[in-house]
Amino acid sequence: MLLSQQDPRQTSTNCPDSSKTPFNSLERISLFELRLNTIHLGRVLVCRTISKPIQSAAVHVEIEDPIIGERSSAAQETDVTTARLPLYNFNVSGVLGDVLDIGTRLFIRKPYCEFDAEDGLPMLRCYSPDDVVLVPNEQVDGPLLTGLRWSNAVSITYGPPVKQQSRPRSGKIDDLQRRGNEQFIRKEYASAIDSYTQALELEPDDVALLSNRAHAHLQLQQFRKALQDAEAALKLDGANPKARFRQAKALYAMRSYEEAWNSLKMLSKATVETQELSRRTRQRLEEQKNGRYNVMSILHEARSTWPPYLDHSDYVGPMRVTEIPGKGRGMVATKEIAEGSLLMCSKAFAVVFEEKSVHDIVIKIVDKLKKEPWVATELYDLYAGPNMPPMSTNCTNATEAAEIDIARITNIVIENSFTVDKELWTPLSSQLLPHANRRGVLDVGTGLWILPSLINHSCLANASFFNIGDFMFIRAVRDLNEGEEVCVAYVGVLDTYEGRTKKLEKRNFECHCPLCDFERAQPEATCRRAKLLDEFTRMRPEIQMGNVGKMPRLKVIMDEIRKTYSTASATISTSSRRGKKGKKKVTAGGVATTTSPPAMEPHQLPIGLFRTLSAYSHLNACLGQFNQAVQALHEAFEVLPRIAGVNFVRVDIAMQIGKMYGMLNRFDEVGRWKKVARKEFQMLYGEDQGLWKEYVDDFDVC
Ligand SMILES: C[S@@+](CC[C@H](N)C(=O)[O-])C[C@H]1O[C@@H](n2cnc3c(N)ncnc32)[C@H](O)[C@@H]1O
């Protein structure tokens, strides 16, 4: 509404006016023309209500202007001006909702408009009930109504009531409907559905029954059935607002946001419920189309909801599913993708938030299949292990039961599920870094996500994932070439070759990432390194406690690990240079089969040194030898390139280096390393300022 600011309580005209002045002698004014804080004497506002009235200190209702003149039907919906109207001293004999039903036309004398003290939005005021007249529905014409048309938002036919052509409803149907309604109010939704169904058997074309049954299905989260009923009702009466709203609600719940939006557009935006659903639908479309998520607010949402099942859209970046030789299906980039880009956001198919057995999530999935049988198609399409060939099912009908194959579901969970964290910062850093002890060990659960399940593993993964509640976000941690395979890490790269291989063996495959191939080709050096790291692992608790007596042995272990790499690199081609990008192997099908190469060749990545360097830095810091401590951290940062799965460690290390420089009064370096940490952080979580601040505050506390 366009409003011009004037002095409070100013009158717009000197024209004498009283509550007795006949309406027909007043000049009509539109909402659009109203000036702020002005009593428009001699004027009358003709409008109609577009929401149900709410009774508090005043009766509150929303109104809209009529459409004046010829305008296209597309313009009608968007050009209509609406406003809020509190009616004080408005005494009603009878049910308020009946007296002031949606679509009631009002004449308002001396309209006055001001800003609401609470929310600062403009609204109309009407203190005297004599200044408001309700125009009966039957009255079509009259001087003030001449030439007025209304928007399509509220579909009401004005004029004398049309004689119903349809045959009268039998008393039995009325009884069944009443029973259904009572059951609905008692939240006995299944029984209500039963009653409406019995009534519909007698009268299949009853709009109210279909719409009510849709409502009951919505309560039971039987969205497809709700949609079927709402659509059947709309076929009989396309202007039925309840059926339309239920159609939109079902479509929203089924994550068909575009269709939900189209449905909402056909409906009045007047009610609070409709407006709220429209707002949420627009947000979901923005997320789905542009991958724009407010991560911080999603985090707040997850922290204030239990269980944190969140209401957000899925997003898929420039990637496609394709066959990857030796790996089954996988995902590849369809164009060059910059590091830090969001690749995917996905809502879990099923999730348990506490540490529970596989059985618990299987039960959840079975429940879901019973409620929404059509989701079986995407579930059974997932990899179910080497001994279970793919199963195709095409369960599209809401009433059709999905085949419940417990053995297959169990296998699918084992092969595809991800661990679920309750908080964002992974516990990995607190295990590795003695200084970093933030939120402690996190409660973990298990989740199954459909599209992320098609992403294969690499120890040198280029995509990292994290979850907030039941939402998974996946980002590229390095630049990706077009056609390059997108991989996440199923196991941590800081584990030894043997450790990683054993874990992957359980999943029935052997990893052929450049690091695994390199370590496999150097069995002696790899085995020696594993033994040294084993010894280090045993010493680590004491190192973490600050036992500086362990320093000499730690130094020996570190030097020995360093040697295992120099032996290996002497026997491996030394043609690759530091910083050189790896080459893609392109198959006949044109698909790159390598994962994104890290900045260095594997034998130049002495990743196994990382943990000892970090521990060595810690002991030096305990001795107050900050120069040596910071030097070791620098090396730790160098030996661990940006690899998904452990990249949070780089954020931590960069922060540690900054902190250490602070001890040395090198404040220029403090700022520089904070920037480095910020960049690493953005690779994982995007550019959310609030999230970064929370992390920094957390870090400063420890
Ligand atoms: C979560 S699924 C990944 C999608 C799967 N490739 C598919 O076709 O549905 C995990 C399975 O994919 C295969 N896989 C994943 N990463 C692999 C890799 N690096 N090398 C070989 N097979 C791999 C293994 O069979 C593994 O058990």
UniProtKB/TrEMBL annotation:
InterPro entries: Gramillin-biosynth_MTr (IPR053209), SET_dom (IPR001214), SET_dom_sf (IPR046341), TPR-like_helical_dom_sf (IPR011990), TPR_rpt (IPR019734)
PANTHER family (UniProt xref): TPR DOMAIN PROTEIN (AFU_ORTHOLOGUE AFUA_5G12710) (PTHR47643:SF2)
SMART domains, A to Z: TPR
PROSITE patterns per UniProt: SET (PS50280), TPR (PS50005)
The organism's place on the tree of life at top rank: Eukaryota
Biased composition (Basic residues): 577-586
Segments forming domain SET: 317-491
Any Pfam family matching the protein: SET
UniProt protein name: SET domain-containing protein
Biased composition annotated in UniProt, kind: Low complexity: 587-596
Disordered, as annotated region: 1-21, 570-598
Ranges for the TPR repeats: 173-206
Signal peptide: none
